[in-house]
User: Which sequence fits this backbone?
């Protein structure tokens, strides 16, 4: 299976995908701290920094599972 993630965070879904044998194709994350963690822990996965500028057209029909993390701002605003 081919997996990709939006709002990736530090890569929890990506790690789980890796554990079950899926291939991580790309990650989209704009938080600098998270980006550093992703570079260290997933060096061979394509990275994108901003969801607003991300164009996934080239991945159409090539991703089996797309996950999306929670946006921290939403959590903080709801407390």
Assistant:
């Amino acid at each position: 299976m081919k997996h990709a993630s939006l709002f990736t965070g530090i890569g929890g879904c990506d790690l789980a995908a890796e554990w079950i044998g899926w291939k991580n194709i790309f990650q989209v994350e704009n938080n600098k701290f998270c980006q550093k963690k992703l570079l260290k822990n997933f060096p061979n996965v394509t990275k994108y920094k901003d969801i607003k500028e991300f164009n996934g057209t080239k991945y159409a029909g090539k991703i089996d599972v797309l996950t999306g993390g929670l946006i921290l701002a939403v959590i903080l605003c709801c407390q």
Notes: The first helix runs from residue 12 to 19. The chain has a mean pLDDT of 90. The radius of gyration is 12 Å.
